[in-house]
Design a protein that fits this description.
4 helices
């Protein structure tokens, strides 16, 4: 009787060890696939200037866009760049910046709607309204 209990406990321990290893392997594989998905989404976005849509079963897929590493400049190049840089442009009106951002988003939606063959009248109207608001908010010189 003791032998059967010992075998059962040994089998149970092996099953627990296997469960832990399987869990770690699945988590690792999941992360690898997500990293690969992010790389594909980044490449798609850079090549086609549009986000890649996830399959219908996935409700959201968010990631931070990778910061492209810029090559290091030498100190001489940095000194020359500091001397040659023009004065900064005057600050833009935050209202206009917000309107331009909305305009960009609306234009992207319009392009997607045109590509899919959906009705675009309401989106065209929205783009026109935002452009008009930008014209009215922009000071004339």
């Amino acid at each position: 009787m003791n032998n059967i209990i010992n075998e059962y406990q040994h089998w149970k321990q092996q099953g627990e060890d296997l469960r832990v290893k399987a869990k770690q392997a699945m988590e690792t594989r999941f992360r690898e696939l997500l990293v690969e998905a992010v790389q594909i989404a980044e490449e798609y976005r850079s090549d086609f200037s549009a986000p890649l849509k996830p399959p219908p079963g996935v409700t959201s897929f968010r990631y931070k866009a990778s910061a492209k590493l810029k090559p290091k400049k030498s100190q001489k190049a940095n000194a020359a760049a500091k001397v040659a840089t023009p004065p900064p442009a005057p600050k833009t009106n935050p209202e206009i910046a917000g309107l331009r951002k909305r305009l960009s988003a609306a234009q992207q939606k319009l392009e997607k709607a045109k590509a899919s063959g959906a009705s675009t009248k309401h989106l065209e109207d929205k783009v026109y309204e935002i452009e008009d608001a930008i014209r009215l908010a922009t000071p004339t010189s």
